[in-house]
Amino acid sequence: MPLVTSVTEPTLTVMPPAEAYDFDYFSTRVDPELLSASIAIRVFRIPLLAVPTGATRRGGWFGVDSLAIARAVQDVLAPFSGFPDLRITRHDAPRSAYAVEWGDRPPATWSDDDERLAFYGRTSPDHSRAPSSAVSGCSPAAS
Questions:
Q1: How far is CA 141 from each of CA 1, 2, 3, 8, 37, rounded to the nearest angstrom?
Q2: What are the pLDDT digits (tens) for 66-83?
Q3: Could you give the CA distance from residue 44 to residue 10 in angstroms, rounded to a whole number?
């Protein structure tokens, strides 16, 4: 008898930005208007922030573990403004296999951390390590 497995769509929950696990991180690093227009997306148990483009933020990303979840995140973000040119890419971050990216495409290489941080709209000079959806080669997002 063949093994039958059930393939179900991933369940994502859209939440207010302040409920995101990484909200405090972003609150000191991105434009307040972008923060208020952000979307918390809960995948499994942890909501993470997707920060839209605008002001000085040229792009963003949201890292996930599977293509099915990436497609679901892309579907969630599609109707919201601030998430132009949504695309799914393979991602080499340590804990994500895919990234949903939006906005301008990041360069293949960065000249330095300041250039990378400016691309993702960093408003603070703090260069501490960011959560996966925040400002690293993604999103995060965020990313």
A1: 43, 39, 36, 24, 13
A2: 999 999 999 999 999 999
A3: 8
Over residues 17-28, the mean pLDDT reads 95
Answer whether 55's CB lies under 8 Å from 49's CB. Answer: no
Q: Token pair of 107, please?
A: 């360069």
Map tokens 């008898």 to a residue. 1
pTM above 0.85, yes or no: no
The encoded tokens of residue 75 equal 């579907």
Alpha-carbon 84 to chain mean position: 13
Radius of gyration of the chain (CA): 15
What does the alpha-carbon distance between residue 121 and residue 101 come to, in Å, rounded to a whole number?
A: 15
